[in-house]
Amino acid sequence: MAIQEKSVSRPKPVLMIPLRRCGSHALRLRLNNSPEFYSPYPLHIIDFMPLLPKYGDLQNDENYFRLLVDVIGLQSVSMVKWKDIVFDPAELFENLKNESRSVHRILWELLLRAGEQHQARVVMDKSLDSVRYADELMTLFPDMLFLNVVRDPRAQVASMNRAIIHDYDSRLNALTWCEAHKLAKNVVEKWPDRVLTIRYEDFLSDQETVLRRICTFFGIAFLPQMLDVSHSVEAQQISRMSALWESNCFAPIMANKDKFLSQLRLEEIDAIESICGDWMDLYGYERMTKAVTHLSPSMLEEAKATSAMKRSEAWLRLKENNFKDFILRRFRADYLNSLATRLI
Predict the structure, then answer these.
(1) Angle at CA 219, nearest 5°, toward 130 and 204?
(2) In degrees, to the nearest 5, what angle opens at C-alpha 97 toward C-alphas 91 and 99?
(3) Gap between the Cα atoms of 70 and 50, Å rounded
(4) I need a surface site. Which of 197, 210, 268, 272 has the fewest CB within 10 A?
(5) Distance of alpha carbon 255 from alpha carbon 257, whole angstroms
(6) Largest CA distance in the chain
């Protein structure tokens, strides 16, 4: 890729927040049907953050260049590749070395350049957990927007319970849900005009209205083809890669919003409503139970131990049931582990 001039009219940056398994792919894939919008498969930089202190002082050119190379490497080991883009670390370093030095600045340079290559006006990162870094992101990109996607915690926790990236315990995942929404609330309070909050259930019941709201917020045109994800090449691709994504090539099914009723035991629903009850009231989700679950530290420690054991079992099942998904996920995990070993 040739050296690029810094443009005063680069794509507008958007971050989707605050927690995965909220229906985020369904929204991203539909919005990607617009030529004005670009959102590649996310890098989930949160998984990289424990390594960051090991790079030392980023004002040291060698340290910063090493970080830049490794972030590009993270993009290269992503499960879903970014189409038709190759990054030159030396050229990127020359363009970024005199700016504020940050792992987020590197990541967003990759995103913005990919968006520019696709001639997009808006670039969105679907790394929802990056809500944790909102303060730094707003310092780097004061024009950043946030798409805050809320989902019924009972449905979202039921989905999280099936995902290797989360815990295998409804109580632990409910606590994670609350923590994420506290972070999102901080963003809403600090930058209210920069945040659009939508409920996933409202998208299920009326896709067009919600997508029009999002497009207006982003400053792009709504297109009817956003309503038909079956023509999305990426949707077809990722639906075959993982059981967690297999529904992304179909129209959403409204009945699935209550699917958690068959996936969770009543005591799990009570626990989720006990933990997330105030948030459910805020977002308009009606409770089903008396919400009388009380969690003790010992209960949570036991839940963590059980969850870790179930995660190990899930990796073995994944290897047996979908070797491609297993190898791609392990390849990324092994890359991060190799960086940790090398940086020591």
Answers:
(1) 65
(2) 125
(3) 14
(4) 197
(5) 5
(6) 62
What is the C-alpha to C-alpha distance for residues 250 and 227, in angstroms, rounded to an integer? Answer: 11
Q: Give the Å distances, CA to CA, from 343 to 48, 67, 175, 232, 257.
A: 13, 10, 32, 40, 45
Average pLDDT over the chain reads 92
* Distance, CA of 274 to CA of 290 (rounded, Å): 8
The three-state (H, E, C) secondary structure of 312-325, written as one string: HHHHHHHHHHCHHH
For the purposes of burial, counting CB atoms within 10 Å of the CB of 317, is it exposed (0-12), middle (13-18) or buried (19 or more)? exposed
In the chain, % of residues over pLDDT 90: 85
Rounded CA-CA distance 267/303 in Å is: 14
CA 255 to the chain's CA centroid: 24
- Strand order of the β-sheet with 12-17 is 37-38, 122-125, 12-17, 145-150, 195-199
Split at pLDDT 50, 70, 90, the class of 256 is confident
Q: In which region does residue 101 sit, left (phi positive, over 0), alpha (psi from -120 to 50) or beta (all else)?
A: beta
Which phi and psi (to 5°) does residue 199 adopt? -100, 135
pLDDT tens per residue across span 71-81? 999 999 998 88
Residues 6+ apart with CB under 8 A from 60: none
Alpha helices, DSSP H, located in 145-206: 153-160, 170-190, 200-205
What would the mean pLDDT of 250-279 be, rounded to a whole number? 88
First-to-last C-alpha distance (Å) of the chain: 32
Give the pLDDT confidence score for residue 62 in this predicted structure: 97
Those residues whose C-beta lies under 8 Å from the C-beta of residue 15, and which sit 6 or more positions away, are: 124, 125, 127, 130, 131, 134, 137, 144, 145, 146, 147
